[in-house]
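Study this chain:
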Amino acid sequence: MALKMVDLNCDLGEGYGHWTLGEAADDVLMDLISSANVATGFHAGDPNLMDRVVRLAVERGVALGAHPGYRDLQGFGRRVIQAKPEELVNDILYQVGALREFARRHGTRLQHVKLHGALYMEAARDEGLSHLLAEALLKSSPETLVFCMDGSKTCAIARDAGLPVVREFYADRDYDRSGSIVFARRMRPLDPAEVAEKCVRACQEGKVRTVEDEDIDIAFDSICFHSDTPGALAIGTAVRDALLAAGIRIAAAAEVVATPA
């Protein structure tokens, strides 16, 4: 069934002190999206940056999410850290709690939690980690949406536990025939028009072309593009414009999943 409404999310606040990552400023990207994933200090982000991005989200009417990752500033959270699942879940709760306090400071709440990078992919395939995470979130924030990929362990286990989930589609990443994301250390330059066409087709037909040059079915509630992808501003702008031109409304994830198809 064709989507008439979709969330558009982006990872923001990915800097540290005087260091920033990506070509476009957070306040510019914020104008394109309906949900913001805010770095919470372990793979990027610091208290001053978190405060600024939360304030921007409130000013622009953008829903707020915590984006916790591995304790890996040097590797930007894209390296797997060997740690017990209990340690990783504690790290996640620590980061979520930090952003929740900044949200409260600015009179808003957390809409969602979305794991970052290698930790997102690890939870997607690790049943034990996903179970522990679901148990922890049920106790600490059972109303908070969990962003994940359809078909992942995170998605299935969170749903079974009664947590609300938001399934993601990646605008600026390739898929393989298994439905998994193909990550590359060095991103090839992307054509914003091609990325936008890919997103509109996914919304209208529920399909995406894989790196094996095959079509697979894809189900999602939210489209993600990354602020550190080269040309992120052009990509985000093209995707947003194409969705709206196709008659697809952009709304925060909470509204999307609460609205009957």
User: Anything to note?
Assistant: The chain has nine helices and 14 strands. Residues 150 and 167 are 5 Å apart (CA to CA).
